[in-house]
Description:
The complex is a heterodimer. Chain A is α+β, with helices and mostly antiparallel strands. Chain A has helices spanning 15-28, 38-42, 53-76, 92-97, 100-135, 166-176, 201-210, 225-254, 257-277, 298-306, 337-343, 354-368, 372-389, 393-415, 423-431, 462-490, 494-516, 518-535, 543-554, 556-566, 569-588, 595-632, and strands at residues 2-3, 6-14, 32-33, 48-49, 88-89, 153-160, 178-186, 189-197, 214-215, 281-282, 286-294, 310-315, 327-328, 345-346, 639-641, 654-655. In chain A, strands 2, 3, 4, 10, 11 and 12 form a 6-stranded antiparallel beta sheet that branches. Chain A has a 4-stranded antiparallel beta sheet with strand order 7-8-6-9, with helices on one face. Chain A has a two-stranded antiparallel ribbon with strand order 1-13. In chain B, 82% of the residues lie in helices and 0% in strands. Chains A and B meet through helix 11, helix 16, helix 21 and helix 22 of A and helix 4 and helix 6 of B.
Amino acid sequence: MSISSMKKLTVFAHNADSDTLIRKLVNLKCVQIDTADDEEIKETLPVRKVNCDARRSELESSLSRISEAINILDKYTHRKKGLFAQKIKVKKDKFVSDGYADKARFTVDSANDAIARQNEIKNEINKLSATLASVAPWIKYDLPLNMTETARTDILLGSLPAGSDLGVIGKELYTAGAVAELLCSDASGIYISLVFCKQDADEVLKALSKYGFTRVTFSSVDKTAAEYTKELKKQIDALRTETDALTDKLVGLADNITAVEILYDIEQTSLTATENMQKLLSTKSTVIINGWVPEKNEKKVCETLDRFECAYSMEEPTEEDNPPILLENNAYAKNFEWVLGMYAYPVYGGFDPTFIMSIFYFIIFGIMFADAGYGLVLSLVCFAAVKIIHPSESMKRFLLMFGYCGISCIIGGVLFGSYFGDLPLAFMRNMLGMAESELPNLALLGASAPNVALLFDPLQNPVGFLLVSLGIGAVHLIAGMAVKFYILCREGKVLDAILDIGAYWLLFAGLGLLFLAPSVGKWVTIAAVAVIVLTHGRSEKNIIMKFLKGLLGLYDLISYASDLLSYSRILALGLAAAVIAQVVNILGTIGGPTVGGFIGLVIAFLIGHLLNIVLNVLGTFVHTSRLQYIEFFNKFYEDGGRAFEPAAPSDKYTNE
Amino acid sequence: MTISELISLIFSGNNIAIFGAVLAAGLAGMGSAKGVGLVGEAASGMLSEDPSKFGKALILQALPGTQGIYGLITAFLIIFKMGILSGEVVELTVAQGAYFLMAALPIAIVGYYSAIKQGKVAAAGISFIAKRPKEVGKAITSAALVETYAIFAVLVSLLLVLLYK
């Protein structure tokens, strides 16, 4: 539960070494390189930003080709993928030096070329098929399609609208001097050919124009429609064969997908190194690296730097610096760091509340979503997921946190008698047909109605549950004040701690005693109020202001009260989950102890309770977080740090 | 049947109580539908540019949905208390029915307004995470602040219904 100390790293190295040096630092996974603040240095030194835009865009385009190849080849592999994918274990240096990288690059190029050609073929086939469809109506026509005339006659091909009266048109054309032949008639139109003497052309065209004739020309086709169709089909077949061959090739290439994935990580790591290069400043022959190293990794980084010809220093951060924040917590609490990260990181040198927060998170989550059945499901799903799918570090922490919270729900469920809502009771009542008097009544605190709770059932005793909620809230708030007390003492402001926070504790104690032992409570309360009024304005010089500020100090009591009432949400959300579960159980057991009834129970159980878990885990997560962020952190937290994000090699597919 | 008989038949104690349940589920549900819709519209705009933010958008979109659930719970509790589900319907007097109607009003009214307001905050949160996806926690917290008042309202409604003897 602390914030790791950071060392400020400054390195001056030869330009020639810079690339190797940055790569080594990336591989260490513990150096965060800052973007150089060039304004400051530029005035005194002849420096400029390192420019590797060309290299960067080259890597980016290479990476996009590699991802494209992985996407394509992934479709042709037979390996099991998805959830159960394991990271590939590989030594990348050896992979490159043994020539596998070049092979993988060849695979990437071949796969990209093959898929580009396949797309080309697809377009070509579409074009040819369209042509094929356009000559289909003329299949019976036995002259070359581009023949439009002989010495004395004109030849015309075309279509009439579907449903035209052929008798009338035929007669009129015959009168005009044309010989018409019907070739094909379908829903799209009536296809005809016409032969007529050249001197009759005007007459014929005039007649045709009345009936919506559309002329069709095939100027480039010197074959009959039948011949042309045959040729087109042959071309399409040839293209299909080619694309099949390309598919076979891709299936063959897919065997190398692992190598391509390794190549992806290698290139991505190079890109990371290049991006970090761009943050640096350089002179004619040196580069300047500014960055941050956690103190515990100092030795490791020094050893690496010693192998290069470079000058470097590791300094304590000064007041003006803004070191990044690396939190250090035990194996349990570190799973809650991301909840803190969602709010804001603490300032450097501040207080890391993760551990205290994680304990209260655990308790509040469990009371808010108190159900042994739901908790068991949540824990099993999360812990199983960590075991089976080997998630990334951040995903693992996310899952583990909810897994732990599930355990807390189980405890809450046992205390408040909730196992998938009131499933045990509903089952005994409706499926076993037990009478109300036979149902168990386990509650230690006594209850009039049946229940399976260790303490009491919140639905029967909502006020009791409200008191539990507010009680937890009070402890949470006092813990927040205790942290502030500690922080003030650490800064040497012991008096402030006692007068500002201790006095309020005295006031709380007094108010509590008013109920238990009024005669003592009265005096304690008066004493506390007096301390607050008299000392709260101690920073003011004017005596009147001192007194007014002191009175104003009492006003804080209202904000404490409203903070406390905010914890009543624990009751509201708890009841929400319980009532929905109860409805699911009523619907599930409505069929009684029959076969259909049991089937109904299983269905209602699966759908209803699953939905309830999803809805309530979301709600409980949001509101438990909120109680930490607003009510708890408000008491002491100083935020504003930035997360420590060291440059690291890509581990999307591989693991060295 | 005279008009006054008809009126007293319609406004029986049980019917007034059921009207309370209807208001709780109906109004709070309407508010949630509107709130979730608002966020959904905003989210679709963002997702068309970057579908990978779906998970984050979904959390924000689900937030204004809880008021509808609170209304539903209140409605169910009233129905439980009336014994409609267990088949032994309790005959309520007009005053008793009115008690349940009043008990349902906090979540019906506050649920309706807070769901819409929360929807607006969450929709603004969508444009926030479109630019800064890592800050989703802040967007969620802002929206969750609005929900506090729906929670207080449902608390009042639930306590009134549960504590009815």
